[in-house]
Design a protein that fits this description.
With 230 residues, the chain is an all-alpha fold. It has seven helices and no strands. Helix 2 crosses helix 4 and helix 5 crosses helix 6. The chain is elongated. It starts with a helix and ends with a helix. InterPro entries: MCP_dom_sf, MCP_transmembrane, Mitochondrial_Carrier.
């Protein structure tokens, strides 16, 4: 948990900062002016995709280390048992650098980019669309509206992101005990041949269940903090 906790502020600041500034560049309207002059969904989608693209490269090393540590199955503190491969996140990062080089920390990053770029465009479009639907014109959405819109935006994004998330995780684990896949397309083809179409939706229910409260809280915090700094 230490690496996700350490990285979440950085990753979300990159995502929301790039999104807001890209939207500012596209529409020449500040966050405060967007309720009176709402940007087009095309501009929202482009800004979200831009934020997702840059976020993916910031997230890639942290996400790789998290996945490697979560998939570590050696038992701890048992006499005669083998020692875990990684003793913690710093040791994991150092081991990857030593054994796989700097590029090892970005293993699976293409799948991460493909997961986050269009998905986060849809994420912000869904959020803005729901806020507009349930907010009187020219007014700011209520806290309840922000919570519900943020939660459903999170669910919508994870439904579309799960196939690439599965491939991303498998690519990140590849290299731990030898290379199994020649690349992302080979990983997709091999997974489909061995496990069928259902493999691309593994974990979707859990991801969606987690997405609602996490993204509801994220958007409420985002809107509240921006309102404080007007």
């Amino acid at each position: 948990m230490s690496f996700p906790i350490a990285s979440v502020a950085l990753v979300n600041s990159v995502l929301f900062g790039v999104y807001s500034n890209t939207l500012l560049a596209l529409t020449a309207t500040s966050h405060q002016e967007r309720r009176a002059q709402p940007p087009s969904y095309t501009n929202i989608f482009i800004a979200g995709c831009t934020g997702g693209l840059l976020q993916a490269y910031c997230l890639a090393p942290f996400d790789l280390i998290k996945v490697r540590l979560q998939n570590q199955t050696e038992p701890r503190m048992q006499i005669g048992s083998s020692q875990p491969r990684y003793r913690g996140p710093v040791h994991c990062a150092a081991s990857i650098l030593r054994e796989e080089g700097p590029q090892g920390l970005f293993r699976g990053s293409w799948a991460l980019v493909l997961r986050d770029t269009p998905t986060l465009g849809m994420y912000f479009v869904t959020y803005e669309g729901l806020c507009r639907q349930y907010t009187p014109e020219g007014q700011n959405p209520s806290s309840a509206t922000v919570l519900v819109a943020g939660g459903f935006a999170g669910i919508a994004s994870w439904i579309t992101a799960t196939p690439f998330d599965v491939i991303k995780s498998r690519m990140q684990m590849d290299g731990l005990k030898g290379r199994k896949y020649r690349g992302m397309l080979d990983c997709m083809a091999s997974s489909f041949q061995q496990e069928g179409i259902g493999v691309f939706f593994k974990g979707m229910t859990l991801n969606s269940a987690r997405a609602f409260p996490v993204n509801a809280a994220t958007f409420l915090s985002y809107e509240y903090l921006l309102s404080l700094w007007r």
